[in-house]
Amino acid sequence: MRLVTLLVSFAAVLLFVSGAIAGSGSKADSLIVENVTVTKGGTVAVKIDFVNTIDLGAVTVPLRVKSKGTTIDSVSFSGGRLEYLRAKPVTIAEDKDMVVFGAICMTEAYIGPGRGHLATVYLTVPDAVMGTPITIDTVTVHPATLLFTKSNSLSYVPHFVPGLIGAATLPESDSTK
Q1: Domain limits at 115?
Q2: Is residue 160 part of a domain?
Q3: Is 132 among the domain residues?
Q4: Omega cis (within 30) before 126
Q5: How does 156-171 read in b/e, with b if 16+ C-beta sit within 10 Å?
Q6: Does residue 121 form part of some domain?
Q7: How does pLDDT run across 41-67, given as a tens digit for each residue?
Q8: pTM above 0.70, yes or no
């Protein structure tokens, strides 16, 4: 229940900033989840990049990891295009398979057009899932959905490129050779 309350509160703030969901950016506006390959369980950093062709006042990013036992641990905005913003809420679901994060321009300059790093999502991948691809996809956590909000408070859904963690298993070494 607490998760639902937090997610609804987060979404309400973003909807307040975004005004009405209407309009659209360019087809080039995108959110891209990096593909990563790991060879053993542990902490994995997955970079999230974005492209926007117009000034933005807010960004909302809900993601889900689709793999039993893989958990979302944290989100970092360090080194990204949104690092300068103060309002960057992050809510991780209690079972740690879902996260909603974003950024809102309050008194800072709008997020200018460009391409670059948005955030890094840190996950824990258990050894038990090695050999199984792990998908990171967008999800709707009502009322939060993937949105870019323009500087005029109208929002649109950018193109989304899901990510994949390739949990590869290393071949056992042959000590007889």
Answers
A1: 2-155
A2: no
A3: yes
A4: no
A5: bbbeeeebbbebeeee
A6: yes
A7: 889 999 999 999 999 999 999 999 988
A8: yes
